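Quick start: read one record
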Amino acid sequence: MIRLILISISFFLVVPLSKLQAQNFQGVATYKSHRKMDVKFDDEKMSSEMQKDIQAQLSKQFQKEYTLKFNATESVYKVVEQLEAPMPSKSGMVFRISEGSDELYKNIKNKKYTNATELYGKLFLVEDSLTSRNWELSKETKHIGEYLCFKASYTEDYDVETFNQEGKITKENKTRTVTAWYTPQIPISNGPRMYQGLPGLILEINDGELTLICNKIVLNPDEDLKIEAPSKGKEVSQAEYDGIVKKKTEEMMERFRSTKRGGDGDKMIIKIGG
């Protein structure tokens, strides 16, 4: 009887403590990106050396660093701003990719997100519901740093839009498999970008072209993290924002068709997400 009483007391002492730790749990994960580049050139006059130079420039431009600040139920994900270094070019063409300063806030508990993004100088607040994905869990494991990670994946259909030299847009439907590696050692159902829904923090994600891999984690830092939704910008749903992007893209392609040239002869600017 005494033994049963002691076990019962221990149980009630441990449970509130574990709940308290979960509520105060927070951290910062740093990710680096790499994108597989497969650019097709219609210009027959472009040499293979020039094509390789352009491929190398684009690949370098897509190597970014991001931070994910998180607690048990919320997160803020954004790119780490860096000064652009001079980029040598053998082809005489210089590429600059602007990814904007998007700030993605996710509330896993409420299944909502808010993304502050800039489009042609105008700030938008895209607010909508998080997508639930049918993750297929695997027993396959690997280590990322000191963390034991498990594999998970799902398959999805997506559209690819291609622009030719005349500014015409062609759309092609494709299927891809998204593969994630998550660690139950950090028991939060979150990850970079719009990825979440697994029994642990996602440390690596690959969609066939883009790879994001975590190279640094700081758990429970000394300073309390400020994790809150951005509030500046015009509030729109994801569908409304996609419609605005499509309209602006069509306007840009129409100007391209009318001028036949993009303006500067030695530079091309590629903008992603604004």
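The radius of gyration is 23 Å.
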